[in-house]
Amino acid sequence: MRSDILLTKINLEGEWKLQLDKDKSGLSQPFTDSIKLPGTTSYARKGPRNENKLVGALTDEYAFEGYAWYSREVEIPKGLAEKTCFLYLERTRMTTVWVGDREVGSRDSLNTPHLYELTGLLQSGPQTITIRVDNTDYPTKGGHMTSPDTQTNWNGITGRIELQFYSESYLTDIQLYPNLSARSVKVEAGVQGALSGSLTVSAASWNSENVHTVAEKEYSFTSQTISLEYALGQDALLWSEATPHLYTVSICLKDEKGEIVDQQQRSFGLREFRTDGNKFTINGSKTFLRGKHDGLIFPLTGYAPTDVEEWLRILGISKSYGINHYRFHTCCPPEAAFTAADMLGIYMEPELPFWGTITEASDERHNQAEQDYLISEGYAILKAFGNHPSFVMMSLGNELWGSRAKIDAILQAYKAFDSRPLYTQGSNNHQFSPAILEHDDFFCGVRFSKERLFRGSYAMCDAPLGHVQTDVPGTLKDYDDQIVPPDFHHNEGASGDAGGVIQIQYGTEAKAVQLGDASGEWIPHIPVISHEIGQYATYPNYGEIEKYTGSLKAENFIIFQERLREKGLDHLASPYFESSGQLAVACYKEELEAAFRSRKLAGFQLLDLQDFSGQGTALVGILDAFMDSKGLITPEEWRTFCSDAVLMARFAKYNYTSTERFEAHVELCWYRNQPPGAIKLQWELADGQGILASGTAEVEIWEEQNDIDICDLSIEMPAVDVMTKAVLSLRILETDIRKSYDLWIYPQQVEAELSKVHRFESLTAEALALLKQGEKVWLMPKPEHISHGIEGFYSTDFWCYPMFRSISESMNRPVPVGTMGLLVDNSHPVFRDFPCEPHSTYPWWSIVSHSKSIIMDGTSKEWSPIVQTIDNFERNHKLGFLFECRVGNGKLLICSLDADKVLDTPEGKQFLSSVIKYMESEQFKPQYEASVTELLELIQ
């Protein structure tokens, strides 16, 4: 928040003349159209309608690239014509400005306001101001600042548009530097039009229950560069996530006569965001970053809002889901976002708009102009937004490659220029061969080497995959041994020489890169953030299509919906969405808890809390692209595994046999602003009939401690006669801290005698003969013998199948499985002894992992699988995991499963037993009749 009290402004918002100049031919008078600014040509629906319908992103209905000329007449009052004047354009593209016929200059910042001095160019009376905005041929590609995958490559002017008139003397570039230990603020500013005079500084809190007012103090100056220290007092209020206290700092410039000639205000928060070993600290207390990625996705407008109210709404939604940190992917938000973050207590990390290679002057394809531009953008971001207490971190770009020495030199220069934020070389730089640079304050990545992974999921082209995708489900996993391997003492500090060229995922494509000379094993000595964790996809919700009432249209959703309709599966769209969504939530729960269990990790950056509209259409959010809930989980439930206090139980597995012991360690990850004091844990294990076991445990913590071990549980599971779901509930009494886990208990004596049924691995003559005789047959092909099928994969698809299929193919690597969990007809009698949900749950893990789903494309809509694997929106296969039919007089059940491996688990044995009992019962009455020819074509 900033205010220039004595500044006279002429608001230029409103009607402007418009001329679109796609071919850049130049302005042709007269203007033939008009537009309301602030806004964009697309939002105003100017120009020809875009007939190209994008499949991999939202479609900008009126996409325009080229020159757009904006012009309006402004009435300049007599008293202002001679004053110092600036034209202020808050957010735009590359601009050139004219006053009348006189060209004033050009600006090209994509992240910060464009400021043009018009002093001496204006006369009283009507004046014509013309602005040409160009959204082509940027000095750099622009990352998500200009991407059609996110906020689109719009043309326009968003935010404030105004003429600013100053007196003869005025303050410029006011920068506020907090000094926590001294409880003071250092004020630096420039003075124009005066060589001497005085300043008065005062401050008062404005958003706190306890108002704190600081006495005014006067300082004299004899230079046009001012630097002074203003004491706030030992009772000064501090800014943090928990207590985002803010001050209004008022600065008055007085001339030598003592008269006020300029008065400006800045919002300020007294804070110190630093590092301490492997953790971040806020005002000396350790904090854990619960971050989300943001690419400036705004489907209704196609551009980022510049009003504080909208950012308060957006950031407030994220905070309700436990988020305390935003990383802006290759972009910087408008000032309103920082202002809202100041007010809410969100830790912000803008990033230079670059996703590429940093080169040396001697390197091939070195682009010095682009590099100079990017570096200048960093300085501009620091100057424009550095006063905001929420601006605590800054990154040089996304997944950068190239010269480590040059990257580190840029870091060093930024740190010397502005010490307020912490800096990192970039997000996930050098991917498979990362290294910490001398001037890194923290490290953000996904691995330290090929096998030392510290997130739960990866793309197939970046294999090995993560534990959420491959490991038997449990809650033991953390990343501490990946961050500091226990056997690493003999190799500590090594940075082996591993040059050569490798192929990597590079944005939405593949690229060959030089590996470099610092790809050996090493131990981080600074805080580590896990980069872009999660990316668990859900099936589209086609009910969302009608929400796209602005300039961006969900043509991709419409295309996906039509594909599903062509396959005869459109009646399953809603169940696909709901079931895939529940699986995604479960994957996110384990992903996030693994991060909170990792005591050497400093935080994470989620990708994402909301859907990502582009890059193939990555529907990875539990919120849609509008930041609206998808109805999959409430904020309150999400905060049980994403908050400043997360209660957790560590245990090996989710499936148990009767009388087997359940062993768990209960711990609390605590990052609230006060020690928890006396903690009383209440726990219970209950099924639908009653409490199976319960107890309490107490521990007292009166000093700062973040990882609190509460107790160990050792429970003998009850003897059950049927498969039973139990819920382990944990709660810290007299707090909002709770957690629950679903567990499954199986009877000990479960018979799964496959010899009781006629079971075949293929449709042999014997199997067909039995069916002809009216017998019941279980066709159970070995998964490896099925060519016309999709392998079993429990976790939902990573990010977006079309994008990573393409990348994997171009890298000649295995393509993703691409499925999104199970859709189960759980009311079917086959599940009488295997009760389950309509979606994937952990009893299915081992069963799915040793299976294949058969592709049933082209079969009748009436032949509906009992258990169907949900395919992605590109392939839309009808995938039968478990299905049945009549064949002549006989009855056939089909499931491609490795029974020997499944029988080794209690859940697998229970499943097989339930299927066998069903086949032996009178309820085995398939409705659909298939011919032998149809079956032989299907089972290949």
Please supply descriptive tags for the structure shown above:
940 residues, alpha+beta, nine-stranded mixed beta sheet, six-stranded antiparallel beta sheet, 15 helices, 16% helix
Please mark out the parts with pLDDT under 50 across 5 or more consecutive residues, or reply none: 490-498
| Radius of gyration based on Cα positions | 31 Å
| Mean pLDDT figure | 95
CA-based shape: globular
Structural class comes to alpha+beta
SS summary, helix count: 15
State the share of residues found in helices, binned by percent.
10-25%
Beta-strand content estimate: 25-35%
- Cα end-to-end separation: 66 Å
> How would you sum up the major sheet?
9 strands, mixed
Overall description:
The chain is of the alpha+beta class and 940 residues long. Helices cover 16% and strands 33% of the residues. Strands 45, 46, 47, 48, 49, 50, 51, 52 and 53 form a nine-stranded mixed sheet that branches. Strands 4-3-7-12-9-10 form a six-stranded antiparallel sheet, with no helix packed on it. Strands 26-25-24-36-34-31 form a six-stranded parallel sheet, with helices on one face. A hairpin with a 2-residue loop joins strand 9 and strand 10. The longest helix is centred in the middle third of the chain and has 25 residues.
Write the layout of secondary structure elements.
Layout: E1 2-4, E2 8-11, E3 14-21, E4 33-37, E5 39-40, E6 59-60, E7 67-76, E8 84-92, E9 94-99, E10 102-107, E11 114-117, E12 125-134, E13 156-166, E14 170-179, E15 184-192, E16 197-205, E17 213-221, E18 225-231, E19 247-254, E20 260-268, E21 273-276, E22 279-282, E23 285-287, E24 289-294, H1 308-320, E25 325-328, H2 335-344, E26 347-349, E27 357-358, H3 368-385, E28 393-395, E29 401-402, H4 404-417, E30 422-424, E31 443-445, H5 467-470, H6 480-483, E32 501-506, E33 509-514, E34 528-534, E35 552-553, H7 555-566, H8 573-597, E36 603-607, H9 635-638, E37 645-650, E38 655-657, E39 661-670, E40 677-686, E41 691-701, E42 707-716, E43 724-732, E44 738-746, E45 758-760, H10 765-772, E46 776-779, E47 789-791, H11 801-810, E48 819-824, H12 845-849, E49 851-855, E50 867-871, E51 879-887, E52 890-894, E53 896-897, H13 899-902, H14 906-920, H15 932-938
Parallel strand pairs: 24-25, 24-36, 25-26, 27-29, 28-30, 31-34, 34-36, 38-44, 45-46, 46-52
Antiparallel strand pairs: 1-20, 2-13, 3-4, 3-7, 5-13, 6-35, 7-12, 8-11, 8-13, 9-10, 9-12, 14-15, 15-18, 16-17, 16-19, 19-20, 21-22, 22-23, 32-33, 37-39, 39-42, 40-41, 40-43, 43-44, 47-49, 48-50, 49-51, 49-53, 50-51, 51-52
Helix pairs in contact: 1-2
